[in-house]
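Technical note accompanying the year-one report. For the benefit of new consortium partners, we illustrate the data format agreed upon in the data management plan: each record pairs a sequence with a structure-token string. No post-processing was applied to the example shown here.
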Amino acid sequence: MDLTKRIDRDELEIMGVRGGLPRCSQSRGEGCILSKNDGVSFYGTMTTIAESPVRPGILWVGTDDGNIQVSQDDNRSWTEVSRNIRGGGESCWVSRVEASYFDAASAYVSLDCHRSNDLRPYVYVTRDFGATWESLTSDLPSFGNVNVVRQDPRNSQVLYAGTEFGFYVTLDEGESWKRFMTGLPTVRVDDIVVHPRDGDLVLGTHGRGALVMDDITPLQQLTADVLASDEHLFAPRNAVLWRVDARLARGVTGVKNFYGRNPEPGTAIHYYLREPARGSVRLTVSDAVTGEVFRDLESTGEPGMNRVQWDLRGNQPPVTSRAAGRGRPPQAPLAVAGSYRVTLTVNGREHSRVVVVQEDLWMDQR
């Protein structure tokens, strides 16, 4: 089944020239069909496909000649819906179609028109199987085509967009976009994955490798109500007491192995302050049963999102004269598996969350 527009590429114009003129080689007298020599091996192909996570059998397809097709009966029949898009991007490369995680009738589409000398961004959403489309481009930079759009699997209002020149996020389903480039070079972003279990954000770039932002769960929990509150403590991600597998360290390999940087040990604790804190801020980790404080964490009263890493260690024990004579202080105790309570005290109010510390159950599977 051909889901493209079935355009004869031999009839396409390139730079205003169509068909057999000009000639590729005047000396040999050979005709030249420009559209067969533009560097594309095949034309009229599917470029993106997605199935609804809400209702299996609902399929979305995008093509390199601008078609968007949807099947609601598991590939038995298809409906072409790109003709219903208004506002630009007709016949452009469909760079991504993203079926909604929350609604079977909804999908998001990004269009890449740079092959038509149009580098404007195009992002659309449909909520009725493509019968109508709404532009979500809003305040994305006017120069820079969109290569990928993704919906967050846990927060329906959060969308991610990878463009020719960077990475953007919206917290209100496209009403406004924010450049999300902390620690990220200016680079073309070609793909986006949100890890469904760990809540990590993975970007595939053109020329700068794969980049990972560890633990975006507070972003997934960020809502209009949270932003309107004076302070908010986010639910922490579970922590794992990872064990070192000595079997992986027996070989002597010199410098031939490449190791990427792992996430910091433990778990991150995030809290939000709408305004600078009035007075000191205290952040503690306590035993969930006894209430005994296990660790006092350094914290800040700066407005905005704050992130503090708990390395699963307790407070440093006092240094005795005997320990000092050994040349180094005693090591802080390591947490054991179980439940702990994180408490944020700020502006005279307390906010608490439970964090679970797990054993390394995956050791024997590695």
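Partners are asked to follow this layout when depositing records. Residues 217-221 form the longest helix (5 residues).
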